[in-house]
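INFO  loader      accepted 1 record
INFO  loader      residues=304
INFO  predictor   begin
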Amino acid sequence: MAEIEKNARSLEKKITPLNVLHVHGVPLLIPSKEMWDKIYNFQARPDDLIVATYPKSGTTWMQEILDMIQNDGDEEKCRQVVSFERHPFIELKFPHKEKPDLEIALEIPSPRILKTHLPSHLIPPSIWKQNCKIIYVARNAKDCLVSYYHFHRMTSLLADPQSWEDFCEKFMSGKVAYGSWYDHVKGWWDAKDKHQILYLFYEDIKKNPKCEIYKVLDFLEKTLSEDIINKIIHHTSFEVMSKNPMASQTAAPSYLYDHTISKFLRKGMPGDWKNHFTVAMNEKFDEHYENKMAGATLPFCTEI
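INFO  predictor   done
INFO  writer      dumping tokens
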């Protein structure tokens, strides 16, 4: 941690937001574009487990659940290192790290847990070739939008979102990092019929975490006692995670995440969009949503 803070201090005045460039029609952060050949040619291993999400859809939450499962409920092992150090983010290079996460991944012994926000059609081909297991978590569009907006506000990695209304327009048109939420969730939904993908919903995990954790265990062909499962549920609850510096990102360099502006783990409750959308914005968003999701069979709910 001392070394991370040292790097943070030396970089603090040099960091500028990472703008986006398009890769096959999808806006990605510039470092991803610059090392796209390396990302595309990343060599997966057959026992890799991939956590895939659109940004701000429960990624860190699922990482904590999987870490607890992998460590048989030993929460002390899961509290030793901040989450983005445990699970390489295969398409990104963090400013405080000397090398990209995909290179760090090469040094990690199997089995690895890897993270990505890439849409399904941009996933490195070796992941499909090795038939890796993938857990995809989808979150309803309205809450995802709200969370993404606040994340833009508090991280130095992304540009200032300007106004809430402006960011809402960009989100709907897919002019944000990782592109269209609609294309992302639908692309992975279609991919699940061809690959080893467990498709989960943020709201379902919130409503019944035990049921969804059993789905994960079945998918991973792993068995844990009910006591350990209950321990995982407790350790990965919003209340506990928000107080855990390794999950809440308060242990991360302060120049990356400014928690005085907004928390990395902010609310974690479906339905917060109601505190942000005006009636007119909600009507406009609903109309746009119906158009973009026409014919899709994805069962999203916007509150529980």
